[in-house]
Each structure stands twice: as C-alpha cells, then as structure tokens.
TrEMBL record:
Family that this chain belongs to: Belongs to the glycosyl hydrolase 13 family.
Domain Glycosyl hydrolase family 13 catalytic as annotated: residue spans: 14-426
Top EC group: hydrolase
Primary gene name: malL
Species of the source: Pontibacillus salipaludis
Keyword field contains Protein biosynthesis: no
Pfam families associated with the record: Alpha-amylase (PF00128), SusG_C (PF23915)
Keywords associated with the record: Glycosidase, Hydrolase
Reactions the enzyme catalyzes: Hydrolysis of (1->6)-alpha-D-glucosidic linkages in some oligosaccharides produced from starch and glycogen by alpha-amylase, and in isomaltose
Protein name: oligo-1,6-glucosidase
Lineage: Bacteria, Bacillati, Bacillota, Bacilli, Bacillales
E.C. number: 3.2.1.10
Length: 566
C-alpha cells in the first residue's frame, strides 16, 4: 500500500490514559473515560490520538513494562472496550496511534518467565544474559536510565540480564530473529484490528554493540557509567528497521514515530527520508536537553543556564536539514517531560500569554505537532512537599540512589524533582473545579495539582480568550494555510537572546512568526529582508493589535504574533 502521508497535515494529541479520565471511580483513568471525552478532542480539532501503553502490565513503569502485548490492562478495560474506542474514534474522524514498547518487556511477560527457568530454555535467548565478570560482578559498567546498574543478577541460573530501564523491564534480544518475528506478528495483529500507527518507544536502543563493551568512565566517583555510545543507534538498528518496514510497515497506510534520543539532524534525515527512511517521523531530544547538563540521563537533574540562541541553533538545524528530505515532529511536552509553561514560560503572572506564545512558536514550524493532554489548557508543574507524594519509578529510584544511598541533600533533590520530575506531566487532567478536578469520583492514583480550581477545561472553554481557544485556532490555521505545512524556515534576528523570530515561505506566501520569551517589554527594528507590504495578522496572543510599524515592533511580555503575506 502506498502511503498517502496524511500525517503531514495532522495534529496529534497524546493521552496518558492513567491520568486522563476515570469513568468508574477507582482513581485510575480508563478507556471508557477516553470514550467519554472524544467530543472534547473533536472540538479541539486534533486528528490523531497517540495513546500511551494500555496493554497488560504490572505497572512498574506505568504500562511501559508489558506482560501481554495482546490484551488490555485490567484497570483500563478490555478488548471489547478498546474495539468500541477505535470504532467510535473512526466514526468521529479520529485516528489512533498505539504505543509500541519492544526494546523490553515486563519481567512478568511469559517469555521472560520461561527465559529465567533455565539456561537452555527455548526463550532464554529472547533476552540478554551474561555471566558475572572475573570479579564476580556485573558483566559491564553500564548505568541504567533509572539509576543503578543496568544488570540484574538472577541467582538460580547464575547469570545477569540486561535492563536499560528498571529491573522489571528486561531488554529483548533483537539479535534473535525469533524475537523480531514475534514483534512483527504482534504489530500486524493490532494493525489488522484497525490501528493507524505506532509511536515506537526508545526504538533506537534495540541494537547493542557486539560484546557490550564497558562505557568510558566520565564520572570516576560513580560506580556505573553512561553507555549510550554502545546502545543508541547501534550497528544493526537500520537493518532491523528495514526488516520491520518490509515485513509490516509497508503494508499499511500508517503514521510511525520513533522515540529516538541521541539522534542528530543528520541521523533524523536518514531515519525519516521518504525513499530510504524507516519512519514517518521521530521525536528528537536535543531541544529537551537544552536545560540539562550533558553526559547522560542523570544530567537532566542538574540545573543548567541556557540561552535562547542555543534553542534556535537546535530547532533551526532540524527545520532546515529535514526540509524536503525527512519530516519533523514538533513537541514541547509528553508524559516524561515537565510542563512547558513552567519550564519555558511563566506559570504565574503571564501564564496565559506565555502558554500561547509557546504554542504559537511550536505550531508555526514545519512538522507534525503533538499536544500533550493538559497542555492545551496550560497545566503547570506541581510542587508536592514530600517524596511520598510521588509515584514515578524514575523519581523514586533517584531518591533511593541520591538521598538514601549517597546522602545528597534531600531539599536539593526535591527541588530537582519539582523542576524536572515526570510526575509533573502525570497529575490528573483538570476537567473542572469540582473535587479532584472532575478526573475521578474516588481517590486519584496520583494527587491532583492543587491549582485545578484556576486551571481547568470547563473554565477554558467558557472564556473565548483562553489558551484552549487559542490552540483551537492554531490547529485550524494549519488546515487552512499550506505555508504552515510546506513552507521553508529561516531565522530572523539570529543572535537575539530574548526574541525568537522566524520566517516561513512557500510559493509566494510568507509567514513571519515573532515571539517574546521574556516577561519584559522590548523593542526591535525590523531587519532589511522583512517587508510588511500587505501583511495581515494571522494570530496574536494579546487582545489589542501588536504595536508595530514599518520600522519595527514593540513586544509586550511573552507577546506572540504571526504575520501573513500572500
Ligand atoms: O524520562 C525521560 C526523560 O528524562 C527519558 O529519558 C525517558 O526515559 C526516555 O526518553 C525513554 O522513555 C520511554 O521509555 C521508557 C519509559 O519509562 C518512558 O515513559 C518512555 O517514554 C521505558 O519504556
Ligand atoms: Ca477507572
């Protein structure tokens, strides 16, 4: 089947089902709860829903640890409800992209249950086992994503297994062709049931460098070291993906998006190229690392001053490099990232202005935009007072490692969790100002952000100037103006540390996007190559017109404006 590339004109909405809407009062979001809210998403104007994992799982990592790929997590519903969800979605013109988590399974998956029985079990080789090293310790020095060693010792069979994430997420051995065939079978099973694509979890980690060499020692004070050179974009990654493409992807008209940390625009171009690529698009991480210290996963917990010019350099490179050669995805939030308005905007005085500014900045770029649940109403980070309020395994492991075992200052670590913790994105969706934000009639699995009486869907819908209505407009504009989808990209005021401005051009149509990333009023004279003859304002985040003339523009705090010329 030929791909129609419908995904280039689409806007995707990500649902983290556990936190979206609870239909039966057990405190956990569920599929029925999603069905109840489909009309809300139709109203917003999105085309596609990406659903974080809903498969059977013991929930060590909230569903990213799967024990049965072909069944639904009990708390979320069952296959009958899922069928109803996708049928209803298709009736309403929405497409469904499922999460595909195949770098690892749960340790409770039947394959792993078999694999650990004995060294000669037929499933042993589905996972990555190694004997202890000469000193009787871990086979190599790799650090896991979630603190501690990436290896777990299995006493009864005397070997270690590899887990890049938690010890309940053993890595599958993609070198084994049987593993690959099982994965392809499972993918076909879902595609034949009607799904419209996959978001592929950490897909570029599936090929590890032969021999699993020790990682270079970059932090001599630490026992374990960051080994991404040996497991990211590994030697057989493209080969495995080509195979998956031939066996599965090419036979369906679907959206595929790879979650691929550690990729450069050059690799991105290669992975998403229309002829030789393997994915529709990917999630790169360079812009998400702009405020993290370099040197691996733990860097995100350490503060870093960053400059707007660094963000410009990263985003422009992706925009320019992939133009006509690949395809970008555009995101500022997901279930692993803090809330963008708290991180890059102002979640106090200029909450609405800065949330809209960030949305403008992102949605006017080239690529497929992703809206993460709650982003469209400006949900913010949460500052829970105690570690006991947190549920995320990454946060809990960090605390255990840094505070309990290594004796770091608990206040400092709690502050880092407030800034970067994944639970910032996972507090329940704020629907209205009733108890627990209308998310559940019971006790929510993770506490609701206390600001729900101020920030919620009901309020946002009533106020025609709200962030929600602004998102609606942005999403609609993408459907009306080809330049947003197809235009090229060039920076204006490249060296500016306060204003982020860029130009898009397509067949005589021009957009000029101007955004103020500060809480100050600032003035800028227009550069020579920007002319405004006949330009109109396409969208603007303040109620009054922007203060601009032929000579220049004065921007209020977090002001954003898009000029359109045809
Ligand atoms: O959490 C992160 C942000 O710092 C990332 O490093 C994240 O661990 C990485 O992007 C992989 O994420 C994906 O796979 C994980 C799962 O915990 C995440 O929720 C998922 O998005 C393991 O399956
Ligand atoms: Ca429920």
């Amino acid at each position: 089947e030929q791909s129609t590339q419908w995904w280039k004109n689409s806007v995707v909405y990500q649902i983290y089902p556990r936190s979206f809407n609870d239909s039966n009062g057990d405190g956990i979001g569920d599929l029925e709860g999603i069905i109840e809210k489909l009309d809300y998403l139709v109203e917003l104007g999105i085309d596609v829903i990406w659903l974080s994992p809903i498969y059977k799982s013991p929930n060590d990592d909230n569903g990213y640890d799967i024990s049965d790929y072909q069944d639904i997590m009990t708390e979320f519903g069952d296959l009958e409800t899922w069928d109803r969800l996708i049928t209803t979605m298709h009736e309403k013109g929405l497409k469904l992209v499922m999460d595909l988590v195949v770098n690892h399974t749960s340790d409770e998956h039947p394959w792993f249950q078999e694999a650990k029985k004995s060294k000669d079990n037929p499933y042993r080789d589905f996972y990555i086992w190694r004997p202890p090293n000469e000193e009787g310790k871990e086979p190599n020095n790799w650090l896991s994503f979630f603190s501690g060693s990436a290896w777990e010792y299995h006493e009864p069979t005397g070997e270690y297994y590899l887990h890049l994430f938690t010890k309940k997420q053993p890595d599958l051995n993609w070198e084994n062709p049987d593993v690959r065939q099982k994965v392809y079978e499972m993918m076909r099973w879902w595609l034949d049931r009607g799904v419209d694509g996959f978001r592929m979890d950490v897909i570029n980690l599936i090929s590890k460098v032969e021999g699993l060499p020790d990682a270079p020692v970059t932090k001599p004070e630490d026992e374990f070291q960051w080994g991404s050179d040996y497991f990211a974009n590994g030697p057989r990654f493209m080969e495995f993906m080509q195979e998956m493409k031939e066996e599965v992807l090419d036979h369906y008209d679907i959206l595929t998006v790879g979650e691929t940390g550690f990729v450069t625009p050059e690799e991105g171009k290669q992975f998403t190229n229309e002829d030789s690529g393997v994915l529709s698009m990917l999630f790169q991480f360079q812009h998400m690392d702009v405020d993290a210290q370099p040197g691996g996963q733990m860097g995100k917990w350490e503060e870093k001053d960053w400059k707007l010019t660094e963000l410009k350099e990263i985003m422009s490179k992706w925009q320019v490099e992939l133009f006509n050669k690949g395809w970008n995805s555009l995101y500022l939030e997901n279930h692993d990232q803090p809330r963008s308005v708290s991180r890059f905007g102002d979640d106090g005085e200029y909450h609405a202005e800065s949330a809209k500014m960030l949305a403008t900045w992102l949605h006017m770029m080239q690529g497929t935009p992703y809206v993460y649940q709650g982003q469209e109403i400006g949900m913010t980070n949460v500052h829970f007072p105690s570690i006991d309020d947190y549920e995320d395994v990454e946060i809990r492991n960090l605390w255990q490692d840094m505070v309990v075992e290594k004796g770091h200052d608990p206040d400092k670590i709690l502050k880092a969790i407030h800034e970067k913790g994944r639970d910032n994105a996972r507090t329940p969706m704020q629907w209205d100002s009733s108890e627990n934000a209308g998310f559940t009639s019971g006790t929510p699995w993770l506490k609701v952000n206390p600001n729900y009486d101020q920030i919620n869907v009901e309020k946002e819908r009533e106020n025609s100037d709200s962030i929600f209505h602004y998102y609606k407009k942005l999403i609609a504009l993408r459907k009306e103006h080809e330049v947003i989808v197809n235009g090229d990209h060039s920076l204006i005021w490249q060296e500016d540390e306060e204003v982020y401005a860029y130009k898009r051009e397509h067949e005589g149509e021009t957009l000029v996007v101007v955004t103020n990333w500060t809480g100050e009023t600032i003035e800028r004279p227009w550069p020579e190559d920007v002319s405004f003859d006949g330009a109109s304002v396409m969208i603007h985040n303040y109620s009054g017109a922007p203060d601009a003339s032929k000579e220049g523009i004065t921007l209020r705090p977090y002001e954003a404006v898009v000029y359109h010329q045809k």
